[in-house]
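step=encode ok
step=design start
structure_in=
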């Protein structure tokens, strides 16, 4: 939650600075890129940050949950935007996402062995609908939502070893739904769009250990991705 508030504060600060810089609050602002959104198709790229975690469900009440410590990763990718209607666009945002989650398994007796650093490199393929409000001056807020498919290049799914050899295994492919909000800020030569989005995994991603009674995976009913994405898009 602290990271979420930090991201929101960063997002708000950037928007406010950009708004003042484009005279949004003046009576007669200079309208930048007036016909930009009338293009049938346009392209862009994004850079950003992420905070990935997991939601664990259990077969039996574990007493103490598996602890998930999230870290801040980074994102980079491309944006393809197809205008459907005046206030509705279809977006494809393929990207590379790097992140790390540190897991602590309380059922493991050895304090050193219970820790797992789960580093992931994702190829992320979201297909989203963007619902834009009416443009006011050089500002246009929007909502975005849709589905995505993710390929985990660091999954270890095909590894024969498991947590007994300190190998944490996840499934290569997973599906998610996503929802978020952002704002388009129109400058003289480009459009800048900061946004915040939540990612919610739909499938169990955990590959169980070979031992069905493993203290790492034996009591886990499902493990699903939860993530916050902060992207800064340039068109």
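sequence_out=
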């Amino acid at each position: 939650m602290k990271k979420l508030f930090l991201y929101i504060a960063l997002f708000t600060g950037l928007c406010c600075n950009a708004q003042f810089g484009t005279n949004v609050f003046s009576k007669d602002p200079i309208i930048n890129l007036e016909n930009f959104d009338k293009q049938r198709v346009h392209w862009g790229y994004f850079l950003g940050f992420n905070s990935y975690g997991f939601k664990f469900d259990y077969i039996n009440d574990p007493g103490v949950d598996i602890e998930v410590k999230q870290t801040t990763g980074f994102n980079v990718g491309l944006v393809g935007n197809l205008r459907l209607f005046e206030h509705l666009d279809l977006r494809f945002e393929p990207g590379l996402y790097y992140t790390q989650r540190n897991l602590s398994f309380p059922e493991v007796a050895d304090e050193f062995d219970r820790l797992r650093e789960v580093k992931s490199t994702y190829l992320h393929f979201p297909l989203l609908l963007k619902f834009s409000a009416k443009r006011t001056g050089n500002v246009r807020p929007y909502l975005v939502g849709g589905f995505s498919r993710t390929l985990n290049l660091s999954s270890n799914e095909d590894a024969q070893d498991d947590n007994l050899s300190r190998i944490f295994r996840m499934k290569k492919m997973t599906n998610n739904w996503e929802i978020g909000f952002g704002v388009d800020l129109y400058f003289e030569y480009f459009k800048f769009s900061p946004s915040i989005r939540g990612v919610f995994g739909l499938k169990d991603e955990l590959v169980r250990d070979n031992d069905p009674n493993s203290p790492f995976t034996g009591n886990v009913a499902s493990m699903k991705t939860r993530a916050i994405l902060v992207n800064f898009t340039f068109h």
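step=design ok
step=annotate ok -> The chain has a mean pLDDT of 89.
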